Amino acid sequence: MSRIGRLPIDIPAGVTVSVSGQDVAVKGPKGELNLTVSQPIEVKVEENQVLVSRPDDERESRALHGLTRTLINNNIIGVTQGYTKGLEVVGTGYRVAQKGTAVEFALGFSHPVLVEAPEGITLTVEGNNKLTVAGISKQAVGEAAANIRKIRKPEPYKGKGVRYAGEVVRRKAGKSGK
Q1: Any bridge partners for residue 108, and if so which?
Q2: CA-to-CA distance for 91 and 75, rounded, in angstroms?
Q3: Is residue 66 a contact partner of residue 5, using CB atoms and an 8 Å limit?
Q4: Are 164 and 175 spatial neighbours (Cβ–Cβ below 8 Å)?
Q5: Scanning 6, 12, 79, 169, which has its CA 20 to 30 A from the CA of 29?
Q6: Distance between CA 71 and CA 124 in Å, rounded?
C-alpha cells in the first residue's frame, strides 16, 4: 500500500470538498480549485476527511494513488493558506518594477521586458530586485515563477540573472591568463 496515498486528508474549518464522479472540487476562503482524478483511483469524503483508495495493485494504480492524494492535499492548502515563490534579480543594472498588475524587468537587453500576471496569480515587487509570485494553485505559482526565471537564467560565471530566492548558483572559474 502507498505510504502517502493511504493517509487521510483532514479538511480544515471553512473548507468544503465535494466529489462528483472523478471530479473533486475544493472551496475555501481564498477561492476554489478543481481536480479531475485519473480513472482507477476513487475519492471519498467521510467525517471531515478525504480518503483516496485504489482498486488493485497494478503499476499505474500504485503510481496514481499517492499522486492523487498529494494533489488534493495541495488544493486544500492552496485555498486556505495559498502558495508563494520568491524570485531575486541579481546583476549590475538589473531591476524589476511594478507597472499596474504587470511587472517590468530591466535585464541587460536592449529593451525592458514586460510580464503580465497569469490569471489567478499576483506579482508583488519588493525593493528593486525582489519579486514574489503568489496564488492558490501550487502548479500555477511554480509555472509562473519558472517562466519569469526563464527570461534570463542565472549564468555560471558572474551569477547574473533571475533566480529563485535562496537558490545557489554554481560558479565557474573564468579564463585563466598565462
Answers
A1: none
A2: 36
A3: yes
A4: no
A5: 6
A6: 26
